[in-house]
Write a structure and sequence with these properties.
Strand order of the largest sheet: 6-2-3-4-5-9
Structural class: alpha+beta
Number of helices: 6
Helix content: 25-40%
Radius of gyration: 18 Å
Number of domains: 1
Distance between the termini: 54 Å
Oligomer: single chain
Length: 221
């Protein structure tokens, strides 16, 4: 029995050490974006609020129409002025209960870290976009953009060819909404890991692995 407990202890310590090393090393290893000769005609943005990163895309262009999957009627204040929509993936409880770090509770953090709750997509509409320290612009080819859209779509729970809205009063503002998502959130797969993987899928600069937003933004400035 003592040997078993000792063995479990070694495994636990090993996991913690591996995680710590991963957090402080892997984000600084760059996965270079794909070099292409075709026109990069579609601008997207990676935007961070200090906690979550979103992938901001045109609501509609000739390659993809997000209005077929998500609806502004799910927001508090729909507007015809909106031209872009930011989409992020993460733990449902974390998203609904933690718009800022000051809202984080121990229960929410542990539930998310241990992969004990379901996931969600968070969408935010914008009338325009501009680059800032927390928002970087990337230019994609049409093929890269389609790959990105397919990746985001596969992350969503879909019914009747539309994302399934989450009925909630937990909004971040007047122009956002939540949708049911696929996948499990845990220590090694966070909202920023999801964004980082999206960048790899569509051939942009990315981290080997990361749970934070900083290096994602840095590698694409």
């Amino acid at each position: 029995m003592k040997k078993t407990i000792k063995y479990i202890g070694f495994i636990f310590v090993g996991i913690i050490l591996t995680y710590i090393i991963s957090v402080f090393v892997l984000p600084y290893i760059t996965v270079k974006g794909t070099t292409v000769q075709t026109l990069r005609e579609i601008n997207i943005y990676i935007k961070s609020n200090g906690v979550h990163t979103d992938i901001v895309v045109p609501i509609k262009n000739k390659y993809y129409n997000w209005n077929t999957k998500i609806k502004q009627k799910h927001t508090k204040l729909p507007s015809e002025k909106m031209k872009y929509v930011g989409i992020g993936w993460g733990d449902k409880g974390f998203y609904l209960n933690t718009p800022t770090w000051s809202d984080l509770t121990v229960k929410t953090a542990l539930t998310a870290a241990l992969g004990r709750s379901s996931t969600a997509l968070h969408t935010t509409y914008y009338p325009s976009m501009k680059e800032t320290n927390d928002c970087v612009k990337l230019s994609l080819t049409n093929k890269q953009y389609i790959k990105l859209c397919n990746y985001i779509e596969k992350s969503a729970l879909i019914h009747n060819n539309e994302f399934v809205p989450i009925k909630t009063t937990a909004y971040y503002g007047n122009h956002d909404a939540f949708y049911e998502a696929n996948g499990v959130y845990h220590l090694f797969k966070t909202c920023n890991t999801w964004t980082n993987t999206a960048l790899k899928v569509c051939g942009q600069n990315a981290c080997l692995w990361t749970i934070t937003d900083n290096e994602i933004l840095t590698k694409n400035k």
